[in-house]
Amino acid sequence: MKKRFLSALAVILLVSACHCGPKDGTYELTVLSTNDVHGTWFDSTYMDNGIKRSLMAVNTYVDSIRQADGAQNVLLIEVGDCLQGDNAPYYFNYVDTLSPHLFPRLVEYMGYDAVVWGNHDVETGHAVYDRVNRELAKAGVPFLAGNAIRDDNGKTYFPLYKMVKKGGLRIAVLGYENANIKAWLAEEVWSGMHFERIVNRVQQDVDAVRAKEHPDVVVVGVHSATGEGDGSNPESEGLDIFNSVHGVDWLLTSHDHRPFVEVRDSCALMNAGSHSRFLAHGKMRLTVKDGKVVEKSFSADLIPIKAEKADPVMRARFQKDFEAVKAFTRQRVGQLNVPLKTREAFVGMSPYVNLIHAVCLSCPPARLSIAAPLTYNGSIVPKELIFNDLFTIYPFENQLYVITMTGDEIQRYLEASYDRWIQTWTRPGDHVLRIVPRDDLRAGQSRWSFEHFSYNFDSMAGLDYTVDITKPRGQRIQIQSMADGSAFDLQERYPVAVTSYRASGGGTLLDEVGIDTDCIDERVVARYPEIRSLLLKRLQEDPTIDLEEVSDLSLLGHWAFVPEKIAGPALEADMELLFGR
Considering the chain, what is the average pLDDT of its residues? Predict the structure, then answer.
């Protein structure tokens, strides 16, 4: 009797473990994805009459596609960088930490099937992303990150994959975090784990999931840029995977904010860009015979999102949350008496960067400060400041570190920074700024732009120095003295204020001058909160920002491009190409 029972139980277990595949016939699956939304949850700018693209507008398009194709045939995936970049995530990350977080509620409302963890989600820190993940898990869609490996047991910190059923098909959705986290973020925000190259893991993971789950369709979402497919960049592994992996039907990339689609016979790739500007939209047709997929075809495109198409029902559902964010955003924090224009930082000292330097230099024991313009063309006129303006002044959640650097390292660091910024002028008509004409894939138009990211154009405060545009790298920087007139010594070690992004290797500038950012803790002498929080604290102590503060040469020192007679007109011509008259 006991043997019969065990035999029957074995049969039941065997049958329950078996997936017999879909019924014969033709199936159509619609795959939709968003990525790098960066907190564009609401369609309002929080100011009077201002609207923007948002998940509320995306939802209008998603709903219409579900109505047309059948909700049971539509898969919706988010590919990371959900929790940073806008007032709303800041509010629910750091201000209202007791109410249910808004992002998991939006995910549940919109019916997302899977969410991939992004690097800016990591940036929020354990307290935020662990909390969000718990609430996402309750909605059945936890973060996916198959290459974020726990240091204590070698398992993944978040799940590798999720199984989804759509229209009679079993779908495996695998998710991966960007592999280059340590290059941008302080270890404390991702403590207890490490990140492996996606391309080194994805094939074995896909094979294992296929063997275990027997899915009919496999989707891989990577919070990694589409890239060039040359295998050289750990943060841009999209085409590396697309060109090498087998057994994947859909590959969803992200991170670079570059709208992109490519369809091949056996797989399709989509990247929706960023900030709710597009909805990636793909269709897959499968023919099943004898329980097996014998034929499949793909199509893919990007649907432009119109800001005015925000779903009024969704807006009403989350109106209370919006009003809380709006009230926080519009609270008065101080008075600005000098215009701040980020573009001015490209041609010399500017009140905008000087303000950031002044805040950083107020943090002991910093004697020098490294900072860059963090927006390409931001501007704030003299006005009563509200909290919303602080996001324009400092849009990222970077912490402030004070590290030690020798005078020689500082000299070589400035040479490296300005070499990304300018090129050697040799004759009239030459550019000084390192700019090129190129197609802007994000905006869909051609324009002049910098060769390198302008948020890596670091200047230094606390020094008097010049940058000679007629000299090559290695000979451009001439340091005269410290800002207080004392001698600058190439052998002395100086305490320098830098962002956590830079200290962690972001932009590779420190590594380029021989400072091992994997061992940066050996140089850190002080840590401070986020720089935006330091600016807010400064305003709470003295609510007025005036010209005197952002032009105090005894604190900030002075730097300029020289020879002035050549640099001035040449820089003016370059700026006209970049920004117009």
Answer: 94
